[in-house]
Amino acid sequence: MIRFRSFAAAAAAVAALSLGARAQTTLKDAYHGFFRIGAAVNTRQCAGQDAAGAALVAAQFNTISPENDLKWERIHPQPDAYNFGPADQYVQFGEKNHMFIVGHNLVWHSQVPRWVFQDDQAKPLDRDALLKRMHDHIMTVVGRYKGRIGGWDVVNEALNEDGTPRRSPWLQIIGDDYIQKAFEYAHEADPQAELYYNDYNLENDAKLKGAVELVRKLKAAGAHITAVGLQGHDNLEWPTVAQQEAAILAFKALGVKVSISELDVDVLPAANRQPTADVSATAVAAANSNPYAAGLPDSVQQALAKRYAELFGVFLKYHDVMSRVTFWGVTDGDSWKNDLN
Ligand code: XIL
Questions:
Q1: pLDDT, tens digit, for every residue of 202-221?
Q2: N or C, fewer C-beta in 10 Å, the chain?
Q3: Would you say 93 and 46 are in contact if contact means Cβ atoms under 8 Å apart?
Q4: Is 103 helix (H, G, I), strand (E, B) or coil?
Q5: Residue 321 lies inside a defined structural domain of this protein
């Protein structure tokens, strides 16, 4: 294993890899001792249908996140039916490769079936019934992988851009304490598991303030929150170094760890991309929406490499509080950004 003498050298390794240069080391070894390096994996990679993708993950990464297979609509599609097959394969893939295995996610407003919030007459559930449903789901899913999945995104994306609570069905039916309850149930299901709050755009001031307030309240209520996941759906200009640092430092001050949980850097010009990681904001595919369909110009590839070095420079500076940096997707071909989100 090659250890880098300086943070800058380690950051440069990422830049080199993104340039396709012949790497001297692997990503996970380059950052060994600083933080784990992860990738979100899909069903085909875990099932061995994408052998090249699976081999790349095994060689380069020491933590994995499930891109979709543990989301409610996949793992619990009907009230009395769980679909554990792909999730089991995901966990087995991580164990086979001695990786830190992340669970994503338990409580979210997206990729959750409508029946979750309704009774069998399709009427809205009341608070107690939805809390019971949340409890059953968390006990079943977290309980199944107890001691094997090391950390869970317990609640995903609970805030609006202005930092106020998102009025999801969870909030509307249960009330403000639904987040606290989700953390309570996850801790009950696996007391050893790390528990995370995960969101995007937390590098923006108003949303950061809202998240800091949320974490402060959770801690005051006794929630076992280990870390905040900054999703990291970035672009070449945003977030600035100052914004990235401010977000990391704000959570460090609260005594929780930080991870970059879903890193990707969008290189499309601003006019062609959505200014959000909101999965419902899918752009209408237009013929001119990707100016780089025939390949990325060298100048943009260089800018991307520089940008990765800049971001990893920040992560390394705060490595004492950073637990992991996970890329959202193994290759550009796997990226959800291909749907122009
Ligand atoms: C995305 C997946 O990558 C896509 O395959 C799926 O169609 C939509 O969700 N924030 C999250 C992730 O927390 O779960 C999302 O993943 C990307 C944004």
A1: 999 999 999 999 999 999 99
A2: N
A3: yes
A4: strand
A5: yes
Q: What is the DSSP letter of 62?
A: S
From 135, 58, 71, select the one nearest 102 (Cα to Cα). Answer: 71
Ligand 1 pocket test, candidate residues 104, 108, 336, 337, most atoms within 8 A of CB: 336
Annotation says 262 is catalytic: yes
Protein residue whose Cα sits closest to atom 5 of ligand 1: 336
With a Cβ cut-off of 6 Å, ligand 1 is lined by 67-68, 156, 231, 262, 277, 279, 336
**Set 67, 184, 203, 262: catalytic member:** 262
State which residues form the domain around 68. Answer: 7-270+298-338
- For the stretch 8-58, pLDDT in tens is 444 545 555 554 555 579 999 999 999 999 999 999 999 999 999 999 999
Q: What is the CATH number of the domain that holds 239?
A: 3.20.20.80
Across-strand partners of 100? 63
Nearest atom, ligand 1, residue 156 CA: 13
Quote the number of domains for the chain. 1
Q: Tell me if 276 is assigned to some domain.
A: no
Confirm whether 279 is domain-assigned. Answer: no
Q: Which residues contact 197 (CB under 8 A, 6 or more apart)?
A: 153, 154, 155, 158, 179, 211, 214, 215, 218, 225, 228, 229
The Å distance, Cα 7 to ligand 1 centre, comes to 30
Q: Residue 65 is encoded by which pair of tokens?
A: 């996140």
- Whole-number Å distance, alpha carbon 53 to ligand 1 midpoint, is 18
> What global pTM score does this model have?
0.92
In a domain, 215, yes or no: yes
